[in-house]
Amino acid sequence: METIVELRNLSKIYQQGEMQVKAVDNVSCDIHKGDFTALCGPSGSGKTSILNLIGGLDTASSGQVNLEGVDLSTLSNTVLSEIRKNRIGFVFQSYNLIPVMTAYENAAFVLDLQGTDKVECRDRVMKTLADVGLQGLENRRPDEMSGGQQQRVAIARAIVTHPAIVLADEPTANVDSHTAESLLDLMQVLNEQHGITFLFSTHDQRVIDRAKRIIRVQDGQIVSDEHKA
Q1: pLDDT for residue 60
Q2: In what order do the strands lie in the sheet with 221-227?
Q3: pLDDT tens for each residue of 78-96
Q4: Which of 138, 148, 42 minimizes the C-alpha distance to 95?
Q5: Which tens digit of pLDDT belongs to each residue from 136-146?
Q6: ∠ at Cα 224 (167, 187), nearest 5°?
Q7: Looking at the predicted structure, is the pLDDT value of residue 229 above 80?
Q8: Domain span at residue 181?
Q9: Residue 218 confidence class, pLDDT cut points 50, 70, 90
C-alpha cells in the first residue's frame, strides 16, 4: 500500500500572550493512497491544525510531515509552494473561490499557474466540471451559483491537477443537509472510481459515517484510529 503522508512525532505549539498552547501533541500516523479518512474531533481538538501542517500551510514546532517521502520542513518556501500547487488539492468550508472568475476560470486557476497547455487545460477542466456535475455551468460566477455548486467548483479545482491527496477542511459546514449528502456522494465516487485520496477535517457525523477510516483527535492527540471493515 503506497504511503502518501507520514506524520512522525508531530507537534505544533502556538504562543498566546504568555501562554503556550499545544495544538498538536506528538502525533504519528500514515495516510495511504486511496484512503477516504476523517480526522474528527470537537472544535479546538487540533484536527484543522494537523491538516494545515500536512498541507504546508503551517510549520511544525517539532516532528516531521513527509509527503510522498519528502520532509516538508527541509524545503524552501518556493519549493513548498510548488508542492502545494502540484501535489495537494485543498477544499475549504468557505469555498475560497475568486469572485470575479467563472466556474471554468476558478477550476483552471492552478493549471494556469502550472503553465499547462491551453488545449490540455480546457480538456481537463471541462471533463472535471462534468465529473462534478457542473456541465453547462462553466460560465457562471460564484455569485450566480448555489453554495453546493460553489463547493463543487472548489472540488473540481482541487482534483483537476491530479494531486497526490485532497485535504478537505469541514467541506460540508456551509451547505444544507441535502447538498452535504450530494457532495459526499460525489467525493465518494471520486475516491472509489478515480482512486483520489481524501483526508477530511470534520465534526460532521455524515462525513464520519462515509469515511473508510476514522482518526479521532482530542487535545491535539490521536485517541483512536479505526479502519472500517
Answers
A1: 95
A2: 88-92, 165-169, 198-202, 36-40, 213-218, 221-227
A3: 999 999 999 999 998 888 9
A4: 148
A5: 999 999 999 99
A6: 30
A7: no
A8: 3-227
A9: very high
Taking the C-alpha atoms of residue 228 and residue 112, their distance in angstroms, rounded to an integer, is: 39
Dist. CA 136–CA 143, nearest whole Å: 16
Q: For the residues of the chain, what is the DSSP string, one character each?
A: --EEEEEEEEEEEEEETTEEEEEEEEEEEEEETT-EEEEE-STTSSHHHHHHHHTTSS--SEEEEEETTEEGGGS-HHHHHHHHHHHEEEEETT----TTS-HHHHHHHHHHHHT--HHHHHHHHHHHHHHTT-TT-TT--GGGS-HHHHHHHHHHHHHTT--SEEEEESTTTTS-HHHHHHHHHHHHHHHHHH---EEEEE--HHHHHH-SEEEEEETTEEEEEEE--
Confidence band of 33 (pLDDT split at 50, 70, 90): very high
Long-range contacts at 186-189 (CB < 8 A, ≥ 24 apart): 186/132, 186/133, 186/152, 186/155, 187/36, 187/155, 188/36
161: domain CATH number?
3.40.50.300
Exposure letters 177-214 (e unless 16+ CB within 10 A, then b): eebbebbbebbeebbeeeebbbbbbbbbeebeebbbbb
Cell of 16: 498566546
How many structural domains does the chain have? 1
